[in-house]
């Protein structure tokens, strides 16, 4: 099996690569590339994302044909795709970080700054927080509700249709921290930095 | 609920741990990778490496350490010490660091913080502030605490927040190494004047000190000696903090 981590020069993806290699242990082939043919032929795709919504979208758009290839992979061929952090946020129709920026539009909704209630809550939301699993998502197999995951973000994805929400976390408000829509998965937290339970989620995705 | 973080810090010199844990089952007490792994397995919420390598020719040793550690530890890894430029930050991130802490360079040229947080995201830019009491405030120092700057710590903290720092690592030079507790007034003042998380550092000697740091506004507490000499394990700390109703990840 081939799992491709999309390298679109947007932020630091070495931790994502290390964690997938750790879980795959040579049994699964992990590719890190922006090569469109390799993405097309792979079985699963991971879309990481660090930095701002705009910088990530710009990064995707800077590689000719990448957005179309990813859309075909996820929407037409319905193969499993996992978005991490801004990777998940980009599923939205629109993001409001820096300037209003059009997203991929795969899961209807928007990405807005977390309401910190006039400074009552510090931003970024950094650290270990518990996830409340609200949907029996395949990537949460053997993961209990209230497990701790590592977060670092100031913006949140607000889906239009709550049925895509797989988990939420409590920070200033109830934040959507995992989504599942058919073959499209996303986590706002960083499974690659969430110790053993995070690696378990990665393993669940690899074994889908 | 967001948990308060416990961060053990390891001083690394020429690729070796200088002060470290003295566990009997440790094969090589100077190996930063092995020590980091022990901490992450023990429940550390994050690992911090402070590179204190003095000579330029050995500066590259830290990259190798970070690269090896990031293949074994799957909790966030922060690396600081001698970070001067966007290029240094880029190299550390590529080796697997999740955050980079900047001290002298941030004071000398705030643009490094601005540019790096824009390029890599605020989430990976930590500004380390070394502060010492002076008159009725605190003055910041650079170059590992050697050079006074005349700059007020509170003003500098706000400026760094505006430049895009994601977190502030605040070390009291008066308290560092004394094991007599954090400078809670400093932590409290800075933490209430900024809206980004503050990590308390310098002076932790007992479990109560950790609780104090958090109760006075720190989102995370960093400590070195309290863990290294085997006085307390990470798990001891967390269990104690939990009894004080401080939210921790157990």
> What order do the SSEs of chain A take from the amino end to the carboxyl end, as H and E?
EHEHEHHEHEEEEEEEEEH
Proportion of strand residues of chain A: 25-35%
Helix content of chain A: 25-40%
Instruction: State the CATH class of chain A.
Output: Alpha Beta
Number of strands of chain B: 11
Strand order of the largest sheet of chain B: 1-3-4-5-6-9-10-11
Structural class of chain A: alpha/beta
CATH superfamily of chain A: Class I glutamine amidotransferase (GATase) domain
- DSSP helix fraction of chain B: 25-40%
Number of domains of chain A: 1
CATH architecture of chain B: Alpha-Beta Barrel
First-last Cα distance of chain A: 11 Å
Question: Which H/E pattern describes the elements of chain B?
Answer: EEHEHEHEHHEEEHEHEHEHH
Mean residue pLDDT of chain B: 92
At the fourth CATH level, what is the homologous superfamily of chain B?
Answer: Aldolase class I
| Residues in β-strands, percent of chain B | 15-25%
Low-pLDDT residue spans of chain A: none
CATH topology of chain B: TIM Barrel
Task: State the separation between the terminal residues of chain B, measured CA to CA.
Answer: 13 Å
**Tell me about the biggest sheet of chain A?**
9 strands, mixed
CATH class of chain B: Alpha Beta
Summarize the structure.
The complex is a heterodimer of chains A (about 210) and B (about 250). Chain A is an alpha/beta fold and about 210 residues long.
Give a description of the structure.
- The complex is a heterodimer of chains A (208) and B (250).
- With 208 residues, chain A is α/β, with parallel strands linked by helices.
- Chain A has a single domain, classed as Rossmann fold, CATH 3.40.50.880.
- Chain A has 6 helices and 13 strands.
- In chain A, strands 2-1-3-4-13-12-11-8-9 form a 9-stranded mixed beta sheet. Chain A has a 4-stranded mixed beta sheet with strand order 6-5-7-10, with helices on one face.
- Chain A starts with a strand and ends with a helix.
- Chain B is of the alpha/beta class and 250 residues long.
- In chain B, strand 6 and strand 7 form a beta hairpin.
- In chain B, 36% of the residues lie in helices and 24% in strands.
- The mean pLDDT of chain B is 92.
- Chain B has one domain: Alpha-Beta Barrel (TIM Barrel), CATH 3.20.20.
- The interface between A and B is medium-sized, with 38 and 32 residues.
